[in-house]
Amino acid sequence: MDDIDRRLLAALQEDATTSYAALGAAAGLSAGAAHERVRKLRERGVIRRTTVDIDPAAMDLDVLAFVLIDGATWMGDEPTSTALAAIPEVEEAHVVAGSASVLVKVRTTGTGALQDVLRRLYEVPGVSATEAVVALDTFFERPPWFHREAKG
Amino acid sequence: MDDIDRRLLAALQEDATTSYAALGAAAGLSAGAAHERVRKLRERGVIRRTTVDIDPAAMDLDVLAFVLIDGATWMGDEPTSTALAAIPEVEEAHVVAGSASVLVKVRTTGTGALQDVLRRLYEVPGVSATEAVVALDTFFERPPWFHREAKG
DNA sequence: AGTGAAAACCATGCAAT
DNA sequence: ATTGCATGGTTTTCACT
After folding, report:
1. Is B10 an 8 Å CB contact of chain A?
2. Which CATH class is domain B56-135?
3. What are the sequence ranges of the domains in chain A?
4. What phi and psi, each to the nearest 5 degrees, are found at residue B112?
5. Class at the top of the CATH hierarchy for domain B3-52
6. What is the tens place of the pLDDT at every residue in B81-121?
7. In terms of pTM, does the model score above 0.70?
8. Are A93 and A26 spatial neighbours (Cβ–Cβ below 8 Å)?
């Protein structure tokens, strides 16, 4: 993981359709060498997948909320993860430190669907209370490590 | 935005390196037609970008926190957005309803760097208090609308 | 809007360094 | 690990439907 790798990752994160020739030019490498480095970045799991970023609004996902979940029992284990992953509207789930046990990010088509997700969250074993923080406007959402300078 | 578009989006979200021939086969279309559909999805902004999903741990981003920000003044406008976007460690920023004004998602290389981000957050005009909820473990993080069945 | 084929372009493998 | 080149596959265009 050197400077060249970081430059390749920055270019790919911005536009993964960039050709290996252009990628090489951006990193000071030939197309073949760029190809080989990217192959290894995938192999090592640094690049987890190549994907498309879809506008949630186009999918009618207009309501975003963060839900702080209090647990009556320990919720940091596998069964909780599986139960939360089974709810498609739950985009992220994290075990957190603080008064809450788990924090989930939820995206739904409306407030009615959000209410339904909260109902399903209460059916997850251990959940004793929830507090929803509803987003009114999203300033921005960007990938981790986006556009940061590749510094040695 | 019909069933075919949803099938194309689902396939691309799972693996954006899929060829148009394979994409067409998955959606019941020729390669040319699949290409044209995807071109239009990009044009309409449904597909915002083609990108790579990078493992944060590979970038030494080991600490994740959600910070609830209280504001002494109205923070729902442009200057706040710009000030928050200027902090690279801030991955997301949302105006929220509830006791807090803004919620940000922050990823840093350690607790020291997190403390530094909190310091910079206090320098954003209007910020009167912050409450950080630190993630101990991430169950999962997936794209919006991931892997949902394309139903009419 | 979709098809099928042609043409331009790119990914991928390889010999050499 | 990188280069330059060859080749096969893919993207992209186009006339037709």
Report:
1. no
2. alpha beta
3. 3-52, 56-135
4. -65, -45
5. mainly alpha
6. 999 999 999 999 999 999 999 999 999 999 999 999 999 99
7. yes
8. no
